[in-house]
Amino acid sequence: MTPSVPNTSIQVRNLSYNFADGAVGLTDVSFDLPSGSRTLLIGAIGLQLFANDPTPADIHNTANGAGKSTLLRVLSGKRLAPHGTVQIGGVDPFTTGLESVTYLGVEWVLNPIVHTDIDVPTLLASVGGDAYPDRRDQLIQILDIDLNWHMHAVSDGERRRVQLAMGLLRPWTLLLLDEITMDLDLLSRSEFLGFLKRETEERECTIVYATHILDNLSRWPTHLVHMHLGRVIDWGPVEKFQVGRLASPSEDSRLGEVVLEWLKRDLRERGPRPGLPGEGKKIAVEF
Prior knowledge:
This protein has 287 residues and is α/β, with parallel strands linked by helices. The chain contains seven helices and nine strands. It has a domain at 10-102 and 172-182 and 197-270: P-loop containing nucleotide triphosphate hydrolases (Rossmann fold), CATH 3.40.50. The strands form two sheets. A six-stranded mixed β-sheet has the order 5-6-7-3-8-9, sandwiched between helices. A three-stranded antiparallel β-sheet has the order 2-1-4, covered by helices on one side. The chain is globular. Keywords: ATP-binding, Nucleotide-binding. One of its GO terms (molecular function) is ATP binding.
């Protein structure tokens, strides 16, 4: 039996990762995140915001971005990291299997079962809903899920709500989120982020969340990590960047200003995209 994570601190030291074709994914990445932290992973370019659910080919084509998706996959154990470069709760996850690490990323939304003619109660029961009835009911309420929905006949936003409930039914100690809330409306997203914040406060669990949507997030993160072209440019507690966690409308503006300045600098360093105007058919902006 694999051990549960004793704590959920994350330590990354001099992590580099290359893809099978030789493309560079990560270069000399180092940072520390304490147990119980909520981290926003910020970086431009990379994950495309597709009009519909992405295909496996789409996912492969997003590998040359800021490195956020690659980093999350490494932390989740989906990509093998060199020995000693990653520790979760003081344990090397690649030599000692860990329980209670949940990764919800772009690949996860491709699960074909969520497009079939199956009702929500049956789907949730299939992933442990009956084992965690209180947690199941809480997620249904928070995400405003209709138990009469059939998955083949719902909108992308409704489908994403059910997928989030599926992924979070079983208690986790480390949660890695990769742009998974972009289909939620403002209210559902606010309720969902409130639920995640309470989880970290009540269960001493840790979250790393890559997102381009910063509205109403100033009081949510405890830490920021800025990535660009596979490198970590800066990281630390939000106070380091003069972004507080107080109930002040100006704090949202301050967080947005910090991130916008990072992205402008990144885009200047990267330079113009290759190819002629109009060649791309997908929006390829990620903040």
